[in-house]
TrEMBL record:
One of its GO terms (molecular function) is hydrolase activity. It holds the Pfam family Hist_deacetyl. One of its GO terms (biological process) is epigenetic regulation of gene expression. Belongs to the histone deacetylase family. The lineage of its organism: Bacteria, Pseudomonadati, Bacteroidota, Cytophagia, Cytophagales. This is Histone deacetylase. The keyword Hydrolase applies. Keywords: Hydrolase. Residues 18-288 form the Histone deacetylase domain. The keyword Hydrolase applies. SUPFAM superfamilies: Arginase/deacetylase (SSF52768).
Length: 300
């Protein structure tokens, strides 16, 4: 059964003025339920992540300062959100959503989070609407508690997964692969194990050719036991922050490529939603919904 992390805390805890396009966290499950792609039995509401799993990835001093609302004004500005207890609560719930989705992926082949993909969070700081790194937390859980020897992070958000790259820069058991717009945030890039910077305006054909060149080769060479897929839809031409030129159909083919390869290789995969900032919320919802539709079709 496809299991998807979702709870109303994702949208309702955000400060006024930061809720668009964050409304997608409510609208997406409503759309998937309405069209019959999922039923309520597919959704689960995660509890906050236990602190020990935060500390397996993040610096203890940073976590203490963050959780006690003691970040400096400069640090808060870099996160993009006003700091509050509700925001921290939201973040630790999202973290556990991805971790629990990972455990469901071990059981069913795939698990998903209607949130997450917080790839700009570093070991010791937050950036770009990311306070903690859900992909890194779940990957470290598999390494420490489940004995995994090789994990592949496939980050296809339009922005480089700089936090994830930094966290795993000295960890050979995690291979970080990021395809992103080269001239976009973050302006200082970290070094992933494989970075594929894209030109502004990159279209469907070029994007998909590059993905189909790199990803099958990585699966063969790295032989991962698990995949984390950051499926941001800010690659769309309509995205306000993206700078690429992809269509909704092209984004869907991107997701199909990743999910079909994982299924064909019998690789469990956890999918985190990532970014999406198109002016029309309908474009965001349709592109994200395609990821969930494909997961249901391919794996079940």
């Amino acid at each position: 059964m496809l299991k998807i992390a979702w709870t109303e805390i994702f949208a309702h805890s955000l400060p006024e003025g930061h809720r668009f396009p964050m409304a997608k966290y409510d609208l997406l499950p409503e759309q998937l339920l309405y069209e019959g792609t999922i039923t309520k039995s597919n959704l689960f509401a995660p509890e906050p992540l236990p602190e020990q799993y935060v500390l397996d990835t993040h610096d203890a001093t940073y976590w203490q300062r963050l959780s006690n609302l003691q970040l400096s004004p400069s640090e808060i500005r870099k996160t993009g959100f006003p700091l509050s207890e509700e925001l921290i609560q939201r973040e630790v719930v999202i973290m556990n959503g991805t971790l629990q989705a990972t455990l469901f992926a071990l059981e069913f082949g795939i698990g998903m989070n209607i949130a997450g993909g917080t790839h700009h969070a570093f070991t010791d700081r937050g950036e770009g609407f990311c306070l903690l790194n859900d992909i890194a937390i779940a990957a470290n859980y598999l390494l420490k508690y489940k004995g995994f020897k090789k994990i592949l992070v496939v980050d296809l958000d339009v922005h480089q997964g700089n936090g994830t790259a930094q966290i795993f820069q000295h960890e050979p058991r995690v291979f970080t692969f990021s395809m992103h717009c080269g001239h976009n945030y973050p302006f200082h890039k970290e070094q992933s194990d494989l970075d594929v910077p894209l030109e502004e305006g990159t279209d469907d054909k070029t994007y998909l050719q590059l993905l189909q060149h790199h990803l099958p080769r990585l699966l063969d060479e790295e032989q991962p036991e698990f995949v984390f897929f950051q499926s941001g839809v800010d690659v769309l031409a309509t995205d306000k922050l993206g700078k690429l030129g992809m269509s909704i159909a092209g984004c869907k083919e991107r997701d199909r490529t990743v999910l079909e390869l994982c299924h064909r290789h019998n690789l469990p995969v956890t999918v985190s939603m990532g970014g999406g900032y198109s002016k029309q919320i309908a474009h965001i919802i349709e592109a994200h919904a395609n990821t969930f539709r494909l997961a249901q079709h391919i794996f079940f």
